[in-house]
Amino acid sequence: MKASELQSVKQRYNIVGNCDALNHVLDVALQVAPTDLSVLIIGESGVGKEIIPRVIHDNSPRRREKYFAINCGSIPEGTIDSELFGHVKGSFTGAINDSPGYFGVADKGTLFLDEVGELPMATQARLLRVLETGEYIPVGATEVRKTSVRIVAATNVNIRKAISEGRFREDLYYRLNSIPVQMPPLRERGEDIALLFRLFAMQMAEKYRMEKVTLTDGARQMLLKYKWPGNVRQLKNITEQISILSPARVITPEILAKFIPQDHETTELATVHSGGDHSFESEREILYKILFELRGNVNDLRRDITLLKKQIEEMKGGTVCAPGTAMPAVSNTPAPIATHRIYIEQQPKPAAEDAIAEEYVEPENLNLDDMGRQMLEKALERNGGNRKKAAQELGISDRTLYRRIKQYGLE
């Protein structure tokens, strides 16, 4: 494409920038516009993906037909099929009239499906059928309808990763990806960053009748070095903040530093501190606490089962025993965890109660005694031997704590 034609397109759509990657995207868009091939625009959030579908539609044979831009991520999953493919009257609560949906209204025109990676799997199957055959069935309808819609889709998610995780259909990806378009992130556009800052500053000055802010050479270099995780959208927001909040109209690096993070090695909005050596002590203590509580719950559950069986015996005249053993005495001191069977028998025993007499197998020890003891010792040590505070930290009652101390011989 000639440079004059490219510049004309940029002026028409208010596109600022001269980097090669941006020029290539516009060139591809203009080349594919006369066709009906599907286009998939891939790029980070805030790079300006929404401009490309408009360029494609306005330079296509469909330019006199309707154009709709739809954010798939903003439509609830329960209504997205109705929004896209329409519905018939009475098909669901609130369907008081027939609706053609976007595919019906945009017939012979262009649909821009932004955030297509957020579509539910069932809707993806419907979309695939429309792309392959031009046919769809409205919600609640029985007859097939035809449409001739040009699809341009965009996403900021890793589609291949979504496919591997089962969140996106591979066949739909290849159908949408007839012509791939990769939008460059702002951090890769070099001098375009300074040009965009100048544009946004001028727009703010004209809109609010104020003096335009400008950058010193040092501030300009700082602007170019920043990674811009929010891309053009973030740059515009920061420019607007500076225009309104900065009393100085000439922006120095010191002033600019108040508005953008200073971590040049990351694309995070906020600086994330990463320490040197990582200690797993806190994670280990959390695990010990969980296992300690689990052991207590298992012991409490065993005692409850024993008491329940005794009550059943007293009420119905049955006997409760382990095979070949007598009824164990109920004690506040938990018995060691062991694998044994408990049966419930009664004369006569209805069939409905057979389920109660099923086998109960308790878990193996898994060395929980050692971990529970270690957790208890640490809690007491951290609280200077104060048992009440140690019990609160472990999330157990004082009585349970005293029982554990006695059990582990820590008196």
Task: Report the oligomer.
Answer: single chain
- State the strand order across the main sheet: 2-3-6-1-7
Largest sheet: 5 strands, parallel
Shape: flat
> What Rg is obtained from the alpha carbons, in whole angstroms?
34 Å
| Average residue pLDDT | 82
How widely separated are the two ends?
A: 87 Å
Helix content: 40-55%
The helix/strand class is: alpha/beta
Number of helices: 16
Quick structural overview:
The chain is an alpha/beta fold and 411 residues long.
Describe, in plain words, how this protein is organized in 3D.
The chain is 45% helix and 9% strand. By secondary structure, the chain is α/β, with parallel strands linked by helices. The protein has a 5-stranded parallel sheet with strand order 2-3-6-1-7, covered by helices on one side. Helix 15 (387-394) crosses helix 16. The relative contact order is 0.08. The model is unreliable at 264-280 and 319-366 (pLDDT under 50).
